[in-house]
Design goal:
Helices cover 24% and strands 25% of the residues. The protein contains 5 helices and 10 strands; from the N terminus they run βββαβββαααβαβββ. It has helices spanning 44-51, 95-100, 115-127, 143-156, 173-190, and strands at residues 5-15, 18-28, 33-37, 59-64, 67-68, 78-81, 161-165, 193-198, 210-214, 218-222. The protein is globular.
Length: 241
């Protein structure tokens, strides 16, 4: 079985002499649900950008479904939910319009959606619990509901890899727990490999297969239950010796 993502001996720096990541080895297998956590500035977002082929390593190699990540040929198979701060202000656009945009990568659609595409959009909206809100403007939804809409957009592309970058930013505790339950169900039902990126991992600690803590490199990689108690706040994770 080909790993979904594979990093070997990866180092990266935005500026010479100021490494963000050093000597990273990581393999994400098909159908895994992996949380990538760490303090702000620790390198977790850079790690994900390398996985997605948006950055190239200074040393080492990054492969995505067996191909060099920066030359990956099937980008339509990747679902990405960005931080809410990066995707805010959508004006009067509705939930259905947002989710329909997730079908565009599947064949470069230019006109109205085909019947099959509309069915996939409706299914994605229903799967995230917004079935009755498809025609409601995104701006009228709560923060948690907006995140669900963007997850539905990613699901509409029928991805093989789903990446969520800080999905609980600006969302209250109850919505975080609800979102975690949703992601758990979607992962079990869709069998899609999932990377959940956050500076904290409490909301998904009980549902992920693995936790990867990043602080200039990988300082922990394993089941959350085996994480040393003093590291449950990832900002306190020690750098490698």
């Amino acid at each position: 079985m080909t790993p979904v993502a594979e990093l070997e001996g990866v180092s990266f720096a935005y500026r010479p002499g100021q490494p963000v990541l050093a000597d990273v080895d990581l393999v994400v297998a098909e159908n895994e649900f992996v949380a990538v956590a760490g303090p702000n500035g620790g390198g977790k977002t850079t790690l994900i950008r390398l996985v997605l082929g948006l950055e190239r390593p200074a040393a080492g190699s990054v492969r995505l479904f067996g191909e060099p990540a920066h030359r990956f040929s099937r980008r339509e198979t990747l679902g990405y939910v960005a931080q809410r701060a990066r995707i805010g202000g959508q004006g009067p656009v509705t939930v259905r319009e947002i989710v329909s945009a997730g079908r565009l990568a599947q064949g470069g659609l230019l006109g109205p959606l085909r019947a099959r595409d509309r069915a996939i959009v409706d299914e994605a909206i229903a799967e995230v619990g917004l079935g009755k809100l498809g025609d409601v403007p995104l701006a009228e939804l709560s923060g948690g509901q907006q995140q669900r809409a963007f997850i539905a957009k990613a699901l509409a592309g029928q991805p093989s890899l789903l990446v969520l970058d800080e999905p609980t930013t600006g969302v209250d505790a109850a919505s975080q727990e609800s979102l975690a339950r949703l992601l758990d169900r979607l992962h079990r039902e869709r069998h899609v490999t999932t990377l959940y990126v956050s500076h904290e991992f409490g909301a998904v600690e009980s549902i992920v297969d693995r936790l990867v803590l990043v602080r200039g490199g990988i300082v922990f990689d394993g089941p959350p239950r085996t994480l040393p108690s003093e590291w449950h706040d990832p900002s306190h994770a020690h750098a490698r010796e």
